[in-house]
Design brief:
By secondary structure, this protein is an alpha+beta fold. It has five helices and seven strands. The strands form three sheets. It has a three-stranded antiparallel β-sheet, covered by helices on one side. Strands 1-2 form a two-stranded parallel ribbon. It has a two-stranded antiparallel sheet with strand order 4-5.
Length: 171
Amino acid sequence: QIVAVKAKEAQQYLKRWPSHDFFVLPAWADELGVGAARFCLKRLAELICPPEFPFCLMLDDNVEFWNGITLIDDEAPLFGGTVPKDRSRRCNQPMWEALSYLQDVDFVDRGEFALLGFQRRGNPLYHNNLRNPYARSHIYKCCMLNLSRLKGIDYDCSVWAMEDMDFNKRL
């Protein structure tokens, strides 16, 4: 796990959490938005991720929980029992469970994706009617980068917010 902090905030973080190790972003990123942080972190990941597993997970610091979802008519419900026919169900899941699927050797298509992400909870009308586990959509707050497929594609340092959408649109 790597926690990135702006150079101008590094001393405050170290004072509060003296036993943590932090990746201090370059000073040029201090007055820029999250696009600059993502740019630096992707570049760092390209240097430290092994070629046999060229993946990097980026997660915003305000993600509070993970949900597991049982879809309408799901043949493998997460919660046991019967599945309602009229709505999907969700419950809190550990982050480990979501990420273990992405690391599983049986996930044979993992290398085909440049970017994988998770849906953000929003409109309950949409999230209560899920029938498909995957969709092509914009990725927010958490994404797994396949570095081997993203060579030469970087986050835009000048993007202050919604950097994930900007990056996703350019893929």
